[in-house]
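Usage example:
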Amino acid sequence: MTAVKNPARGTGAAFPGQVPAASLRGRARRLAGRSPLAVTVAVLVAVILTLPFVTLIISALTPASQMGADRWLPTSLRWANFTDATRYIPFWSMTRSSVFLSSLFAVLTTFSSALTGYGFARLRGPGKRILFALLIGTMMVPPIVTLIPTYLLFSDYKLVGTYWPWVLWGAAGTPYAIFLYRQYFSSFPKELSEAAVIDGAGQLRIFCQVFLPLSRPLLVTAFVLGFNSVWGDFIAPDLFLNQSNTTLAVGVASGYQNTQGYPLYNLLAGGAVLYVVPVILLFLFAQRSYVRGFATTGLK
Amino acid sequence: MTVTAMSSSGAAVPGRPPGRRRRLPGWLAFYGFISPWLIGTAALTLFPVGYAVYLSFTDWNGMTSFKPWVGLANYQQVLTSGDTMSTLSKTLLLTAVVVPVTIVGSLLLAMLLNRRMRGRGVLRTLIYLPAVVPPVASALIWKVIFDRNSGAANRLLGLFNVNPVSWLTGGNVFIVLIVVLLWALGSGIIIDLAALQTVPAEQLEAARVDGAGPYRRLRHVILPAISPILLFQTVLTVITTLQTFIPAILLSPVSSAGGLGVFTNIPPANDVYMVDVYEQFFNYSRYGYGSAMLVVFFFVIVAMTALIFRFLGRSVFYAVDPTKVHE
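Running the assembly step on the lines above writes:
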């Protein structure tokens, strides 16, 4: 059994050298790996999906006078488009709002979701099944269904125009992340917490000292998902914030146009590049853990 | 595992003061852990939904303190309004195009990228990257590409002597909306790749020995093994696609005529359901009607989910009953 399982483990990331018994399967795999067709298709798909980024960067470096021109590359690169893009809208104060709100929400939702996921995975209480059904059910409620009524309610409580809604949303956790945590914590051996219980540790201590340190990939996954959801959101800041404290998403989406309302494409492209770069960097930086976070949730 | 957990704290047992041993009853711990979510859901999901349901029975315009009760009139109007039904069918069409391509595309790409090849890590990252780009940015990127005068799309067509097309006006903008959503084709590959690692190697090997070709291995070994994940993914993708909103409004040729973030002239071709809801609330101040639309939409989503479970759920194969893992 184990002899067969080992090579299977290796297929995730490892390479042939690590597989001691070169089974039939291993040889077939290596032959398949040399298939030029597979590589060609993969490269082709990657190129097609990357081209929009390339055209965006080219547009961001093109002088306004050459934007409509019938050529693929500008005769000269205009780096000042980027600085213009940061001046045409209150770029830096909006960036501060975005960074602050996204981090705040991500940190809160990462821990709150972990707590709830732990509760559903490892603890018992009356009504647990019904509450879990409620959790899955709320995944089906479109955010916008609650957003507009929430806006009406929050304006009664003078919460519109402040960052408090994000604190509350963050503290409430995210159903999808809770679900991932629940799957992950369920897969831990029972003995892990039993031993700690015998030692007299309370559940909160077990959670903080045993489970949290073992779930770093999933913490990263939840943080990245949470950060991106606020950084990329346009509707909530559009509704809940005003011009003086809104986020970069709103600014970039609706700020780059002249007085006649015609989009200034080179500034728009420059602003869009600056807006996307942090998200891409965060993903590249966290990629390894992020991928493992999904891989280890045991979505089986 | 047990041994390490014991030894890390086991030494402290004898000297522990008896008071530290008093613990909360189990059910209290459960409710303690889930309380942030439970309170948050009650206040930020259930209560607003209830409020929307209440408003849907009124004819409120958002201004007056008095909310005139109109009973089921809004629902009757939603279900008989040709405009609303056409936005709904447009949204369903969008979903019918985008979801199958995304689910099948993600799976095929994941299978491709599961093979050993040079530069696999880079290829995986590049193909997944569009799925990381926030919807605001992807809408703007494609808006730049599809601009009539300066966009790369028309320049590309120009190579084949095709006259410039006005992509962002009229019915064409719906095509651009589909392109925006399909760009994130690889959004499922991370989960699919993880799922593919769970396919039992013995079964694949056995199928291969029995002479099963790639198609039969996919159909009879791989798909059954990963079917619960595919079902979960399909439901989530359907739900998010039905809610398409941001790209639909941001593709409009002239956005925000009235200051930051107020959209008044969204092209009719991109009048998907959520855009219609947004306009009912914020352009026409029809809070009652908009709320009724939201409630109807919720039932559409529940119905779609039930349909998916009905038709795809039968072919899902659970190796372990997921509800009984730790009971």
